[in-house]
Amino acid sequence: MSAIITLKNVTKHYLEDDKNLLVLDDINLEIEAGEFFILVGPSGSGKSTILRIISGLEKDYKGEVILSKDMTVSDTSFVFQQFALLPWMTVFENIELGLFSKRMDEKTRHAIVAQELKQFGLEKFAHSYPKDLSGGMRQRVGIARALAPQPKIIFMDEPFSELDSFTAEELRKELLQIWVERKPTIIMVTHIIAEALELADRIAVLTARPARVERVVKNNLPRPRMTRSTDFFHLEDQLYQLIRP
Ligand SMILES: Nc1ncnc2c1ncn2[C@@H]1O[C@H](COP(=O)(O)OP(=O)(O)O)[C@@H](O)[C@H]1O
Ligand SMILES: [Mg+2]
Questions:
Q1: Are β-strands 153-157 and 36-40 bridged in parallel, bridged antiparallel, or unpaired?
Q2: pLDDT over threshold 70, residue 245
């Protein structure tokens, strides 16, 4: 298998009070096509910064981010922690937004939006505005908008952190189902180790700031992951110890 994304010696400083603050310290990663890859690390370690660099949102860094040859940035989508929906647009219009960059007529666009509404159980809310939805429904719209253009890679920055734990659990299940059906590459960031273990094929464990890759752990727990099993707890402990030795 060849990597869909490679990071080579990625290093990043922010300027803070006239001083250079080292945030990312020589990050090297290879992510495979179709993989569910998660970066886990403490808050403030630099997780969002890595995701912003990989996705092209942040251009000021040293080192290299290499996309596989058949890929451009337009084959990627982003799901944000705070949902980032446009409040003056309906659910339908928010999902449709992801499609305007693709060359397609209105009829095709609308058919795709209708299909995503159905997939996410949002049909009843098509003409509602984001403010009238629960957090879980808003993030379903956020994910539907990201998926509508059929991206090869989806970046997700703590997409479930703003949700209560029951809703987060449901959305994780829905996301896994979609990942199995459509097989995009997913690159997600979280500070919750159990979430990483429930979802990921491989987990990059980051140190506190400045972020270095402490280790990349292969998650061989059989799917669907039994989140109350001894094996699960055992691996969870191991990951905790990597972060807090
Ligand atoms: N625009 C910025 N200017 C200065 N410092 C920043 C900026 N963005 C983030 N930081 C700092 O960089 C560190 C990493 O931030 P971030 O990538 O958001 O971490 P995480 O997502 O892991 O919580 C934090 O300590 C944060 O304060
Ligand atoms: Mg963050």
A1: unpaired
A2: no
- Average pLDDT on 227-233 reads 96
Q: Which of 156, 193, 205 has its CA nearest to residue 176? A: 156
For the chain, strand residue ranges (E) read 3-16, 19-32, 36-40, 62-67, 76-79, 153-157, 185-190, 202-206, 213-218
Does this model's pTM top 0.85? My answer is: yes
- For residues 98 and 148, is the Cβ–Cβ distance under 8 A? yes
Q: Choose one of 12, 13, 14, 193 to mutate for the ligand 1 pocket test, by most ligand atoms within 8 angstroms of C-beta.
A: 14
Which residue's CA is the closest to the ligand 1 atom numbered 17? 46
Nearest-CA residue for ligand 1 atom 10 is 14
Report how many helices (DSSP H) and strands (DSSP E) the chain contains, helices first.
Answer: 7, 9
- Entry field: residues in the chain: 245
Domain edges within the chain: 87-149
Q: What does the DSSP 8-state code read for residue 45?
A: S
Residue 210 CB less than 6 A away from ligand 1: no
Question: How many C-beta atoms lie closer than 10 Å to residue 181's C-beta?
Answer: 9
Q: Is the CB of 209 under 6 A from ligand 1?
A: yes
pLDDT in the model for residue 58: 95
- Provide the H-helix boundaries in 99-147: 106-119, 135-147
State if residue 43 touches ligand 1 by the CB under 6 angstroms criterion. Answer: yes
Question: Is the minimum distance from the CB of 12 to ligand 1 under 6 angstroms?
Answer: no
Angle value at C-alpha 187, between 173 and 91, nearest 5 degrees: 60
Q: How far is the CA of 22 from the centre of ligand 1 (A)?
A: 10
- Which protein residues have their CB within 5 A of the ion that is ligand 2? 48
